[in-house]
Amino acid sequence: MRRLTVLSILCMVSVFTGNVRACPTGGECTWPTLDVILSDGGVSPLVTDISLLGGLTATGQSFVSLLDMVAPVTSTATILLEEAGYAGQNQFGIYKFNGDGVAPSAGEMLLLFNGSAAVGASAVVQFDLAGGTAWYDRNGDDVMDAGETAAIGAVFGFFLKSPDSAGGISNPTFYSDELLNPDGAMEHALLFNTSGITGAISGNPSVVVAFEDLLASHTDCDYSDMVVGISNVTPVPEPATVALLGLGSLAALRRRRG
């Protein structure tokens, strides 16, 4: 579990008071704001008004939940930016939420983008909530082919398979749940809630997930290596709210997920 610093709590308090523009660091990296991420190497061609994203900070959360659960239930993922040396090899997908720090099985992971996918590529995931499955028709033949389905329900996280190698770790899989990351509990994914912002990004995604694809021992902390907009989802909130926190207990506070 990650320890909340005083600055982190003050950042969270600012969200409740309407000031969401000044939030601090996360783990080994200083978390860049979304406008900074999407401007790395030049503004993403899918960003229509970068000023609307100015200072937008990461939520600090690891999972999302579907919003509209009336059949047919879908969520669209679109690559917004890939400013990475490994862009041609990175693989992005979603995985089933089984609990904090609980790794998914192979059958609970669904690949959406392989190394050949580029900025602008999109994947429409169809969810069968009664059956607890997700399907991405990668081949476009309207048939559930091998590798196109996974046991994923309404709550899920994100993963990135990287070809990076350092410190005795090779070809790591990074998760939006930092407890699963092979290089220690480093945040390799940042989630941004963009549901209240229209006209900033093509397609108006409700969440943007930004990945760092380098291992902690030599990371550059830019989080622009794989940036994906996701529709029809919302970040899963933490169980405790800042409103219940006493400022006198900040030094001993630890955040728990749920």
Q: Uncertain regions: pLDDT < 50 for 5+ in a row?
A: 1-27, 240-258
Write down the Rg: 18 Å
Describe the largest sheet: 7 strands, antiparallel
Per DSSP, the total helix count is 2
| % residues in beta strands | 25-35%
Structural class: mainly beta
What general form does the structure show?
A: globular
Average pLDDT score: 85
**Percent helix range:** under 10%
Q: SSE order in H/E notation? A: HHEEEEEEEEEEEEEEE
The structural domain count equals: 1
Tally of DSSP β-strands: 15
Strand order of the largest sheet: 7-6-5-2-14-13-12
Distance between the termini: 11 Å
Q: Could you explain the architecture of this structure?
A:
With 258 residues, the chain is mostly beta strands. The chain is built from 2 helices and 15 strands. It has helices spanning 6-16, 34-37; strands at residues 64-66, 73-81, 91-96, 109-113, 122-128, 133-136, 149-150, 155-161, 165-166, 169-170, 173-175, 189-193, 207-211, 226-230, 233-235. The strands form 3 sheets. It has a 7-stranded antiparallel sheet with strand order 7-6-5-2-14-13-12, with no helix packed on it. Strands 1, 3, 4, 8, 11 and 15 form a 6-stranded antiparallel sheet that branches. The protein is globular. The protein starts with 5 loop residues before the first helix and ends in a 23-residue tail after the last strand.
What are the salient characteristics of this protein?
258 residues, mainly beta, single chain, disordered N terminus, six-stranded antiparallel β-sheet, globular, disordered C terminus
